[in-house]
Amino acid sequence: MHILVIGAAGMVGRKLAQRLTRDGELQGQQITAMTLADVVAAEPPVGFTGKVTIETVDLSEPAASEKLIAGRPDVIFHLAAIVSGEAELDFEKGYQINLDGTRYLFEAIRHAHMADGFRPRVVFTSSIAVVGAPLPYPIPDEFHTTPLTSYGTQKAICELLLSDYSRKGFFDGIGIRLPTICIRPGKPNKAASGFFSNILREPLVGQEAILPVTEDVRHWHASPRSAVGFLIHSANMDLEQVGPRRNLSMPGLSATVGEQIEALRRVAGEKAVKLIRHEPDEMIMRICAGWAPGFEATRARALGFTAESSFDEIIKVHIEDELGGKL
Amino acid sequence: MHILVIGAAGMVGRKLAQRLTRDGELQGQQITAMTLADVVAAEPPVGFTGKVTIETVDLSEPAASEKLIAGRPDVIFHLAAIVSGEAELDFEKGYQINLDGTRYLFEAIRHAHMADGFRPRVVFTSSIAVVGAPLPYPIPDEFHTTPLTSYGTQKAICELLLSDYSRKGFFDGIGIRLPTICIRPGKPNKAASGFFSNILREPLVGQEAILPVTEDVRHWHASPRSAVGFLIHSANMDLEQVGPRRNLSMPGLSATVGEQIEALRRVAGEKAVKLIRHEPDEMIMRICAGWAPGFEATRARALGFTAESSFDEIIKVHIEDELGGKL
User: Fold this and answer.
1) Residue A73 falls within a domain, yes or no?
2) DSSP state of A101
3) Mean pLDDT for chain B?
4) Domain that holds residue A51
């Protein structure tokens, strides 16, 4: 079992490689090789005894994908993308990497399929940004994709390509729309959505965090551990049962900011909650208003995908995975 | 007012140019120039006194679109595509023309926009093939696009691009999902959907026609005259009121084959109906089962788009427009 991870230097990519190392197998077969690709050199996963190849590539170069699949990986996890904010600021770069890069990958696989029957499993990470306001709550599986960002547009287009290439038999693909990942480890960043993680992660280690929105803002979350779980399940499951609609909204937890704070209080006490500074920011409030409050995710749940069911659980996952199990 | 029609040699393109000639104006301004583009030379519309430029171009060549917009047309009707059957048989050609061709056009406009502020109205003809079975009846405006053909995939992708380019202000675009055009003038063709027109058009002139499906098959229709009406309305209307969801399922008439035949009986008598030969074809029945039975088209109707409300009316339109007004 040879696995290719594209976007392996990112937070989810690193956690995925570590999980694959721990599991040692995928689809019931021993993992003997991993190719870890990204625009910067990915770290080899600690403890992996098989062959590791680190590829530093720019997916927007047509030849990059040919090189990546030259070893005919059995499973390809495609996590690479430039993020929403950057794709919005740099229109051309967004399309080059998020759309053309993905299409080059799909085309390279199609050409290999026609040459030698290559037909890998392709797991593509899409995003809840494929939908756009006004949105019902919860959003049904059959709701249309009318993105309000170039990033969401690029993801929605790749979903369509993935279904068509899968229908034609060029590869066996599945697209998964990840919820907002919470609690995102690391430092606070400038993403408009950063506060959802900041207001929990920072107080848990005694640091202040800024809350720029009101507590009634509702959003859709899953832990990094769940995100990796979705990827593993996507690689293992029988895709025949998914049928031609290959893109699925992943399960998650719909919660208000107030519910996040209540969970923090239960897990870490009033002292932690007091570290959240309320500084309303009109611009972030306006951006937030267009975000998905939550999905039904009926199909994904029926297919065995699972996520956290409370923010207490999401916080505990963070404490276990990032803080060595203790506060 | 300078108008560019891409796909001007096709049936709808020809009727559009003729209608524009008859109207003499668009958006309340006199039409002084028409550029008619297609892979084969389009016929100049009879009676047009402005400047006509005939362009024979292959839209899948990146430079073609630059040439087409060199004269900075005020309104661009983009009707060009290779049809569903051909796009399914020739995967590469389908993507080259239906996706890349459209993207080259949008990119050429974006570059012109950045160079000199060019911002034309773009009317894009999409298709009901953007949806795929299983389908509810009627299909709501907010139903997701899960096409089951490469053609439908390409149209759905172009819809997404159109919305994003419009949102960014590069052009002022609208995508319209045309129903199946009925009664399509001309000779019977080999398209799987051809029988919807054949069973009316041929008997109306005393010819036999073959019906390959059962009479309970329900589908979604509008006349060629209505299709042209949608295009004109799309060019004239204020798109601010459409908002960011720039793709609309057009109104139409949902009817069973049995209802088509009853209308034929009322308009042309039992003699005409007797010319329909029932020859069930399993393959066509299976293909048909995946087609759209009808749409709510709530938004489009509210925005002033109109279509026929009975098959009697559709037949009468055909008699007026194609048979000189009499049977």
Assistant:
1) yes
2) I
3) 97
4) 2-179+223-249
